[in-house]
Write a structure and sequence with these properties.
single chain; Rossmann fold; Hypothetical protein af1432; 2 domains; five-stranded parallel beta sheet; Response regulator; phosphoprotein; Sig_transdc_resp-reg_receiver; HDOD
C-alpha cells in the first residue's frame, strides 16, 4: 500500500518517519513538503492514502486534497489540522474523509492511516472506492432543507424542532455524524446517536454546516431525493420503536440507503449490481462512505448487511436485525423470513407491521 504524508514542516515529517521505522507496517511511504511537490510525486505513482497538513503556504491541504479527489478519486484523503475557523472547517469537510487533530502523536496518526487502509479490502471491489472517492456531498431533501433553513434563520425557533428536522434527513445526518466523530469533537469517544452528535457539536456549528450547504439548488431538481428521505425517516422511526430506544438502530436505518443519493447508483447499470463479495453495490457504497467518514462500526456494519443480515456469522437479532426489518418494511419489501425464524423473531413481525401502519397514519395526519 502506498501512503503519502504532506507537511511544510520537515520536523513533523521526520517524526512520522521515525515512527514508521519503529513499526512493521508493510507500507511504501513517501513525504512531500508542499502541495505542488505532492502532486508531482503522485503523477509518477498514485497513493492509496494521502495525509496532508491543512495550513501550508501557496497550496493548503484542502486545495491539495481537492485535486487528489479530482485526479485520483480512489485515494483515501486524511487532513491534519488544529481546530480552524468555520470557513476552513467547511472546506475540509468538502474534501477530506478523516480529520486528525493537530498536534497529535505519530501513533494516533498511523493508527488512523492503518484503519483507513483496512477499509480498502472491505468489499474487494475497486468500483466502491472509485464511486465514493468522487463524492463531494450528498443532497438533502429540498422541502425539508427549506424548512430547516427557515427555522435556523428564526432567532426564536424551537431548538428541539430543529434537531428533529435535522435528524430526519440522511444527507444532513451523515455530514453531522462525520463532523461529530472527527477528532475535534469526539474527544476519543465515537457517537452513534444523531441527537447526541448535534449536542456535542453545538447548534451554532450545525447551523453553519447547514446554511453553508451549496447542494440545495441541485437537490430541488431531483424528486427521488424527497422520496428517499421520507422512506428513510419512516425506517428510522420504526427502528426506534422496535429497539425501544433512540440509538444506533435509529441512525443506521436513516442512513441505510445513503448511497442511493448518488444519481449513478439509480441507473439500470448499477441497480442490481453486487460487489465481488456479493454485497449489493448501493449497500457497500453506503457503508464504505460512512466508514470513511468515521461513523461507528455498529452503524456501518448494519448498513452494509441491512439487505442480507443472514450473511453475518452472528445469529442474534441485534442492531442489524432491527435495521433490516425497519428498512425493508418502510420500503414496502418483505424482510428475510428465514432469518427472522432463525433468530426467533418471526412471531414479532405482525407487531412490527402494526407499528409501521401507526407511524404512517401519524405522518399523514
Amino acid at each position: 500500500m502506498q501512503v503519502m504524508f504532506v507537511d511544510d514542516e520537515s520536523r513533523v515529517l521526520s517524526g512520522i518517519e521515525r515512527a514508521l521505522m519503529m513499526q512493521d507496517t508493510g507500507w511504501f511511504y513517501r513525504f512531500a513538503t508542499s502541495g505542488q511537490d505532492a502532486l508531482a510525486m503522485l503523477e509518477e505513482h498514485p497513493a492509496d492514502v494521502v495525509v496532508s497538513d491543512m495550513r501550508m503556504p501557496f497550496m493548503d491541504g484542502a486545495e491539495l486534497l481537492a485535486q487528489v479527489r479530482e485526479r485520483w478519486p480512489r485515494a483515501i484523503r486524511i487532513i491534519l489540522s488544529g481546530y480552524s475557523d468555520a470557513e476552513a472547517t467547511l472546506r475540509m469537510l468538502d474534501v477530506a474523509h478523516r480529520f486528525v487533530a493537530k498536534p497529535c502523536d505519530s501513533k494516533t496518526l498511523l493508527a488512523t492511516v492503518e484503519n483507513a487502509l483496512a477499509l480498502r479490502n472491505m468489499f474487494l471491489d475497486p468500483k466502491v472506492a472509485e464511486i465514493v472517492g468522487r463524492i463531494n456531498y450528498l443532497p438533502p431533501a429540498p422541502k425539508l432543507f427549506l424548512e430547516i433553513s427557515r427555522h435556523i434563520n428564526n432567532p426564536g425557533a424551537d431548538t428541539r424542532k430543529i434537531i428533529d428536522l435535522l435528524s430526519s434527513d440522511p444527507a444532513l445526518t451523515a455530514r453531522i455524524m462525520q463532523l461529530a466523530n472527527s477528532a475535534w469533537f469526539s474527544r476519543g469517544n465515537q457517537v452513534s446517536d444523531i441527537g447526541k452528535a448535534i449536542t456535542n457539536l453545538g447548534l451554532e456549528q450545525v447551523k453553519l454546516l447547514v446554511l453553508a450547504s451549496h447542494v440545495f439548488t441541485e437537490a430541488k431538481t431531483d424528486p427521488y431525493v424527497e422520496q428517499l428521505q421520507q422512506k428513510a425517516m419512516l425506517a428510522s422511526g420504526l427502528a426506534t420503536r422496535i429497539a425501544g430506544k433512540q440509538g444506533p438502530e435509529q441512525t443506521a436505518s436513516l442512513l441505510a440507503n445513503t448511497g442511493l443519493l448518488i444519481p449513478e447508483l439509480r441507473t439500470p447499470e448499477y441497480v442490481k449490481e453486487t460487489t465481488a463479495c456479493n454485497t449489493p453495490l448501493s449497500a457497500a457504497i453506503s457503508a464504505y462512505l460512512l466508514t470513511l467518514w468515521g461513523l461507528p462500526a455498529e452503524i456501518t456494519d448494519a448498513v452494509a448487511h441491512h439487505q442480507h443480515p443472514a450473511r453475518l456469522e452472528n445469529e442474534t437479532f441485534g442492531i442489524t436485525g432491527v435495521v433490516h426489518v425497519a428498512v425493508m418494511l418502510a420500503n414496502d419489501c418483505s424482510p428475510d423470513l428465514s432469518y427472522l425464524e432463525q433468530t426467533g423473531m418471526l412471531n414479532k413481525l405482525p407487531q412490527w407491521q402494526a407499528m409501521l401502519t401507526e407511524l404512517q397514519e401519524t405522518t399523514n395526519d
